[in-house]
């Protein structure tokens, strides 16, 4: 080999973009910035029950099923006469009122991406730990048919981080989980989507999200259209070459 012969680095090939068969959306913190409403309700109610609440406690509940959060609050309050079901019912009532009477704080880029998906014929599902009565308060503000199906937290046996909510959505839509993209903002939600086998777009909001195979982490959905979504899905799939195609 000549002394002046150079070895050029291999060209970096960008993974091919892939449009998902369906988009599976989390609600709290991903579609609507409702986490502050839940926290406001917690700070109003828990002192009435004799407990002391903090931002650390509130952030520990982000993305959990409501009954898991209810059990956590009961442990903090330390009252045997309170049940997780009662705690959840009181919280839901307050948040539903806030959603029905106040302005909806949509997360940046979420409604725009929803509209692009619908125009392209790609179905969306709403998959939430929140209960149906709460979701209906927001769904009535969206164009009819925005979501092809809705899986609420009180309609599954196992909530996030279990994969059941996203598997139920895929079954209803008639798609393979590995062909879908999950949009989430919480650790339990991302874990649920990953366990289901979907590509996960983790959109940072109130908590930091860990990296994982078949996962792309974003700071915002603002400006994310179909082309960029497809590029993210392609990169996520390429990050786990051993996964099903």
From TrEMBL:
SUPFAM superfamilies: HAD-like. It holds the Pfam family Hydrolase. Keywords: Hydrolase. One of its GO terms (molecular function) is hydrolase activity. CDD domains: HAD_BPGM-like (cd07505). NCBIfam families: HAD-SF-IA-v3 (TIGR01509). This is HAD-IA family hydrolase. It comes from Auraticoccus cholistanensis. The lineage of its organism: Bacteria, Bacillati, Actinomycetota, Actinomycetes, Propionibacteriales.
């Amino acid at each position: 080999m000549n002394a002046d012969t150079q070895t050029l680095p291999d060209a970096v090939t960008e993974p091919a973009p892939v449009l998902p068969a369906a988009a599976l959306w989390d609600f709290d913190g991903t579609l609507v910035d409702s986490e502050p409403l839940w926290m406001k309700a917690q700070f109003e109610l828990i002192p009435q029950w004799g407990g002391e609440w903090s931002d650390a406690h509130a952030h520990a509940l982000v993305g959990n099923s409501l009954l898991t959060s209810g059990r956590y609050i009961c442990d903090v309050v330390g009252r045997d006469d309170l049940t997780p079901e009662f705690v959840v019912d009181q919280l839901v009532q307050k948040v539903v009122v806030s959603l029905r009477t106040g302005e909806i704080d949509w997360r940046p880029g979420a409604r725009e991406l929803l509209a692009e998906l619908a125009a392209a014929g790609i179905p969306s599902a709403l998959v939430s730990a929140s209960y149906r009565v709460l979701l209906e308060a927001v769904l009535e503000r969206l164009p009819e048919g925005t979501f092809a199906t809705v899986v609420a937290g009180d309609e599954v046996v196992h909530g996030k981080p279990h994969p059941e909510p996203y598997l139920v959505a895929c079954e209803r839509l008639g798609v393979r989980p590995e062909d879908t993209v999950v949009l989430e903002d919480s650790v339990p939600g991302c874990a649920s989507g990953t366990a289901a086998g979907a590509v996960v777009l983790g959109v940072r909001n109130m908590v930091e999200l860990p990296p994982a195979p078949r996962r792309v982490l974003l700071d915002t959905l603002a400006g994310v259209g179909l082309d960029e979504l497809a590029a993210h899905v392609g990169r996520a799939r390429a990050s786990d070459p051993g996964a099903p195609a």
